[in-house]
Amino acid sequence: MTPRERRILIVAILSSFVAFLDGSIVNVALPAISRELGGGLTLQQWVVDGYLLSLGALILVAGSLSDTFGRVRVLRVGLIWFGVTSLACAVAPWGAALVVARILQGAAAALLVPSSLALITSTFTGPAQGRAIGAWTGWTGIAGIAGPILGGVLVDTSSWRLVFAINVLPIAATLIVLAGVREPERTGPTARIDVAGACLAVVGLGGPVFALIEQGRLGWGSPIVYLPLIVGLLSLAAFLWWEARAPHPMMPLGLFRARNFWAGNLATVGIYGALSLGFFIFAVYLQQVGGLSATSAGLAGIPATLMMLFFSTLFGGLAARFGPRLFMTLGPIVAGSGFLLLTLAVPPVDVWRTVIPGIAVVGLGLSITVAPLTGAVLGSIHPEQAGIGSAINNAVSRVAGLIMIALAGTIAGEQLGVAGFQRVLVVTAALMFAGALVSWLGIRTPKSMTDAGTPAAGERT
């Protein structure tokens, strides 16, 4: 790896690390937030889904911005914006203010993830790209799972507000490293911004998510629930219609002609919907029902973190050599089995016997899955479209997560208990197994694995 490649990989990892860390660190702080600001499960859902909503709705626009204005420039703006909105979350005086700040923070996060991954795919090729994606996946996966550990310590020793304020430190470090990165030269035309598509996506996602969260409190018969649902679904239909006809769509539907692209994104729905739902309910349950402290609940995720750290790069490299299909099939099965093991964690919760084994199996499954999944999706499209391709895949994962978290109250019930926790984990495992089935049936190994950045002959259908 050259010094330039090493610097770009560090920037890509740090940029995404901030976004993924914030997306997970808040989970263990939810009980403390609701104790101080009120709002119960509804506020907890909105604190998580407000972030995922703007992230999922705007990440496609961010991918276009990345391809249009350059990955380095978009990263720099996103990092500064993320720092400002993190401080706004830290000082929020009431629940509604926190939710608004989280929505703005998610918009900033949307600028980080596709640009960082596009930097990797435009810099590395072949097996080196697979290893780089594996390293990126491992470290960002660690952020997603290790976040609760740091969050628990901050909540128990100080305040949940530090969970947001601490983002300033890695942001400052990333901006320093980013100052030495030059924008890669472009070899194709720049994209244009699809404003109409962006507006339809925001309304199309926001309406149904609002309805799913608020129906538990107001009921489906309330116009405050069913009207946003109807408007949102109509907007989603209009979004797909517009994207098929727009001169410069922010989600080019032609990308889905690549078999591994559409199959990988379909598998992403199950896998990342399961991850968001499973870890959301896991962190809340251990504290509110299991009686663990925020720190203990966070520490329970350490085995998964270690698995991601040790094995993600290995499986990313193996998938680049042998193809992603086998890994994308076995990985979700292993992770789903781990979630089923966690159903044994009933009060009094024995962390060593019922939590640690299950979470370790989940981490192993994620190590097998995530890097091959990312490589399969982005390896099926042209490198010049890496920004929007990464954005689409990330949008799919975030939207899947936000919908499943919005459904958490419906699955678990208004008051989270053992039975509700177990129902949620069974649904989580089922989603993982569905992702494995889609991968086995849909993913194909390119005929040549020597050019990971270009679709092999016959890969498109």
From TrEMBL:
It is found in: Cell membrane. Signal peptide: none annotated. The keyword tRNA-binding does not apply. The chain crosses the membrane at residues 47-65, 77-97, 103-121, 133-154, 160-181, 193-213, 225-242, 262-286, 298-319, 326-346, 358-379, 391-412, 424-443. Its main location: membrane. Gene3D superfamilies: MFS general substrate transporter like domains, Multidrug resistance protein D. Residues 8-447 form the Major facilitator superfamily (MFS) profile domain. It is a multi-pass membrane protein. Keywords: Membrane, Transmembrane, Transmembrane helix. GO terms for molecular function: transmembrane transporter activity. InterPro entries: MFS, MFS_dom, MFS_trans_sf. Pfam families: MFS_1. One of its GO terms (cellular component) is plasma membrane. This is MFS transporter. It comes from Cryobacterium zhongshanensis. The lineage of its organism: Bacteria, Bacillati, Actinomycetota, Actinomycetes, Micrococcales.
